[in-house]
Each structure stands twice: as structure tokens, then as C-alpha cells.
């Protein structure tokens, strides 16, 4: 039976990150993915590498600071994949947040980002408003501009895996995790690949199965803690009419939620929604009412597109957020990553719930720190904040 230091379930951004971090630390690591890299949530995000301006309102300062630090690292190590973009926040007479409130928020954002060049912000002069892709100008009081970054989430995931493979990591794909048995010395992991059953032994199993993480955790024997989480669906649509000036950060006219209207591959990507989800994560799909909600945003802010209908949508996708279970609206819940282990000292299983695309590297470093007491001594091969990520071919 093959033996590893770390076996990871799930080839999304978190699984990719842990694979890279484990290999960089000099450990023997294997990633098991049942379909394709980034086939889950990590290809269905808003594709932003961002500090999360709106998390300031819910007081998640530590998360914003960490995310801005990770944004700066991405701009350095993944320049082929992550691009700084102007963001525009139009403020109308009836917009909930006034320009002075936004500027205070952006000043705190800049402070948490160490006032680097990418945290500069200001107002777009009125003379430049006509260059904003036909943005509605009636009752427009101000347009605030700041910067955040955009990526291709699936390519970023593949780039991280490619980096890990370059450090000697292994991958089994397509390969479906079936079950794990804990013993004092580690974990026996069973998976199926090409309809045959394979068993490997590892010191630590990392469960990075995203919305499927609870399913994976329930297949561990003896049972391990499974936290109470909710799945919340987020849908995006693509329309062929391109916006080009930058990313528009607008309030939905129906409920005031923040929605992004983004340039994307020569077209426009609009998202997202927050719909509680109770079914099988494999069955998630965009709902007609979510598509209507997103179209209403575009029609409202871009009068030239007021005739858009669902038949204009060229692409649609839905992903699932994993959030701590609570009764409050998904929008206001913590976006901090939840890490659980089978035991405090020398964990054999670590599960990752939730988190952000932006935070994959920091989350992976945290995982390595938590599981290091269970791993043999190894000589480090690389530092993940210095490894350059190349666009995969
Ligand atoms: C609508 C939406 C928008 C978002 N926008 C942003 C954003 O703009 N910026 C940002 O920073 N974050 C964003 N996020 C958060 C971010 O996308 C997620 O935190 C991240 O993609 C989660 O990655 P993951 O690796 O944990 O899970 P996933 O990407 O879902 O990966 C889990 C993997 O596990 C595999 N798997 C499951 N079961 C098994 C099994 N039995 N055997 C083998 N493999 C298995 C699946 O096939 C899948 O590939 C968004 C999330 C959503 C839902």
C-alpha cells in the first residue's frame, strides 16, 4: 500500500493550495479529485481576488486585512492570472450609502491594505461619466473609484496544482474518495479510480471537498465532528453586451444587496445571488428568478440594455457557499474559514469549510501549521508566497 504524509480530498482552490503547501514543506502529498480540477465552487465564483470592501460593515477587519495582504501577494506571484481593475460605485440620490460613508470605508480599506498603490481611491470627475459604459446618469450624485483584482478562478486553481506537481506532489483524477479509517498512526483512505478500488495510507487526511465536505467527513470511521453549516447558492449570468471601463459595484434596486457587473472574456458577467440551498450539492443550478433578479440590476443601471431578457443570457452558473449555520441573512454572515480536526493534539483529519478564493494560500498555510505535529520532519523546498504561478496551457 502506498504511503503519504498528506492526502487531500477535493481539487478546488483549497485542495490545490494544501497540495502545494504540503509539497513546498517537503512532504509526500496526494490530491484526490472525483471529476476535474475546479469543477466545483472554484469555477463558479465572482472571480475576484479582493479585500472584501463590504465585510468592513460587518466588522470583519481581520479577514479584510488578510485578504488585502493575499491580494498583494497574488499581484506579485500570479501576475499572468490576476489583474488589478478599477471598480466603480455609482451613488444616486436614493443609494443607501452616501459618498462620504463610502470614502470612510475606502480609507479604512486603504489603511488595512497598508496604503499601497493599489488602495488609492477617489471620485470619477463628472466629465468622465460618459465613458462609463452607458451607466445611468439621471439622479447620479457621484461615482467612486477604487481598485480590486480579477482572476480566472479555474485557471488559478490549475496553476496552483501545476506548481504543486512541480514540487513532487501527486494527483489521482478522476478518483472518488469513498471512506477513511482512523488508526493511532494515521488514516487508511479508500477511493475508486477507473472503477477499481485503491487504498492508501496517510499521516493526515485533509478534507477540502467544499460543499461536499460534510459528506466526506461522514465517511470517516470512527465518526469525527461535523460542524453545523448552511449551503447558500450564488448564481452568475453572462450577457454578450460588453462593459469595458471596469467593474461596477451596484445596489440591487429590489433589495439593496451588492451586485457586481464585470467585464469577462469580451462579454459581461453579473453576480451574484444568495439563495438558501438544501439539496444535493451536485444538483445546484441557476433558478429563473435568480436570473431575473440579475437582469433587473443590469436593466436598471444600464438604460441601453433595458430590453434584456433571459433569452439574451449566453452562460449561467451557480455555486454553493458554505457558511456557518445561522438564522440571519447569508449576506451578513461571517466569511471566515472554519477548520475542524478529529482531535486537538496530532490531528489525523482536518476539514475546511467555507473560505474565499482570495484566501487559499493563507488558509493552506494555516492547515499546514495545524497538522504539522502529525507530520514527520521534512526539509522545505519552497515558500508559497514566493512561488510564481504561471497560466496553465
Ligand atoms: C457564488 C460565489 C461567488 C464567490 N465569489 C468569490 C470571489 O469573487 N472571491 C473570493 O475570494 N471568493 C469567492 N467565493 C468563494 C470561493 O469561490 C470558495 O471559497 C472556493 O472556491 C471554495 O473552494 P474549495 O476548494 O473549498 O471547494 P470546491 O471548489 O467546491 O472544491 C471541492 C472539490 O471537491 C471535489 N469532491 C467532492 N467530493 C469528492 C469526493 N468524494 N472525492 C473526490 N473529490 C471530491 C469536488 O469535485 C470539487 O472539485 C465565491 C463563492 C460563491 C459560491
Report on the architecture of this protein:
By secondary structure, the protein is α/β, with parallel strands linked by helices. It has helices at 13-24, 61-77, 99-112, 153-166, 213-217, 288-301, 360-371, and strands at 2-9, 29-32, 48-49, 82-92, 122-123, 140-151, 170-172, 176-183, 186-193, 196-207, 220-221, 229-239, 247-251, 258-264, 267-271, 275-277, 315-324, 338-341, 349-353. The strands form 2 sheets. Strands 3, 4, 5, 6, 12, 13, 14, 15, 16 and 17 form a 10-stranded mixed β-sheet that branches. Strands 1, 2, 7, 8, 9, 10, 11, 18 and 19 form a 9-stranded mixed β-sheet that branches. The structure holds flavin-adenine dinucleotide (FAD). Residues 9-15, 32-35, 39-42, 45-48, 176-177, 208-212, 216, 234, 272, 319-321, 352, 355-358 line the site of flavin-adenine dinucleotide.
Q: What characteristics describe this protein?
A:
393 residues, alpha/beta, ten-stranded mixed beta sheet, nine-stranded mixed beta sheet, 7 helices, 19 strands, globular, binds flavin-adenine dinucleotide
**Average pLDDT figure:** 96
Uncertain segments are none
Distinct bound molecules: flavin-adenine dinucleotide
Structural class: alpha/beta
Radius of gyration, rounded?
22 Å
Put simply, the count of helices is 7
Note the overall shape: globular
Work out the strand percent. 25-35%
Please give the number of β-strands: 19
User: What is the ordering of alpha helices and beta strands?
Assistant: EHEEHEHEEHEEEEHEEEEEEHEEEH
Biggest sheet descriptor: 10 strands, mixed
Span from first to last CA?
33 Å
Proportion in helices: 10-25%
Amino acid at each position: 500500500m502506498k504511503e503519504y504524509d498528506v492526502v487531500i480530498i477535493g481539487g478546488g482552490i483549497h485542495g490545490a493550495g494544501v497540495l502545494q503547501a504540503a509539497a513546498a514543506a517537503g512532504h509526500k502529498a496526494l490530491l484526490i479529485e472525483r471529476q476535474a480540477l475546479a469543477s466545483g465552487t472554484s469555477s463558479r465564483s465572482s472571480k475576484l481576488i479582493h479585500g472584501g470592501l463590504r465585510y468592513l460593515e460587518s466588522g470583519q477587519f481581520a479577514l479584510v486585512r488578510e485578504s488585502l495582504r493575499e491580494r498583494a501577494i497574488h499581484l506579485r506571484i500570479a501576475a499572468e492570472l490576476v489583474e488589478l481593475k478599477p471598480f466603480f460605485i455609482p451613488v444616486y440620490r436614493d443609494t443607501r450609502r452616501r459618498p462620504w460613508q463610502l470614502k470612510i470605508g475606502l480609507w479604512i480599506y486603504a489603511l488595512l491594505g497598508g496604503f499601497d498603490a493599489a488602495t488609492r481611491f477617489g471620485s470619477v470627475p463628472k466629465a468622465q461619466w460618459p465613458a462609463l459604459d452607458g451607466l445611468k446618469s439621471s439622479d447620479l450624485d457621484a461615482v467612486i473609484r477604487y481598485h480590486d483584482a480579477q482572476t480566472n478562478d479555474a485557471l488559478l486553481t490549475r496553476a496552483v496544482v501545476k506548481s504543486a506537481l512541480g514540487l513532487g506532489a501527486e494527483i489521482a483524477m478522476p478518483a472518488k474518495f469513498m471512506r477513511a479509517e482512523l488508526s493511532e498512526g494515521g488514516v487508511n483512505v479508500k477511493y475508486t479510480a477507473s472503477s477499481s478500488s485503491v487504498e492508501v495510507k496517510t499521516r493526515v487526511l485533509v478534507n477540502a471537498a467544499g460543499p461536499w465536505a460534510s459528506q466526506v467527513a461522514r465517511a470517516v470511521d470512527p465518526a469525527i465532528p461535523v460542524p453545523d453549516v448552511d449551503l447558500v447558492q450564488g448564481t452568475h449570468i453572462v450577457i454578450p453586451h460588453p462593459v469595458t471601463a471596469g467593474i461596477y459595484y451596484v445596489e440591487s434596486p429590489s433589495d439593496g444587496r451588492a451586485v457586481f457587473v464585470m467585464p469577462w472574456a469580451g462579454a459581461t458577467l453579473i453576480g451574484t445571488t444568495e439563495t438558501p440551498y438544501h439539496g444535493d450539492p451536485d444538483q445546484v443550478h441557476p433558478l429563473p428568478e435568480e436570473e431575473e433578479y440579475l437582469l433587473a440590476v443590469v436593466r436598471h443601471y444600464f438604460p441601453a440594455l433595458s430590453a434584456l431578457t433571459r433569452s439574451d443570457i449566453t452562460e449561467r452558473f451557480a455555486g454553493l457557499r458554505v457558511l456557518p449555520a445561522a438564522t440571519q441573512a447569508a449576506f451578513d454572515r461571517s466569511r471566515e474559514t472554519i477548520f475542524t480536526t478529529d482531535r486537538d493534539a496530532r490531528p489525523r483529519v482536518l476539514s475546511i469549510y467555507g473560505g474565499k478564493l482570495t484566501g487559499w494560500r493563507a488558509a493552506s498555510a494555516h492547515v499546514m501549521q495545524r497538522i504539522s505535529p502529525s507530520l514527520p520532519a521534512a526539509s522545505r523546498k519552497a515558500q508559497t508566497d514566493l512561488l510564481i504561478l504561471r497560466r496553465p496551457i
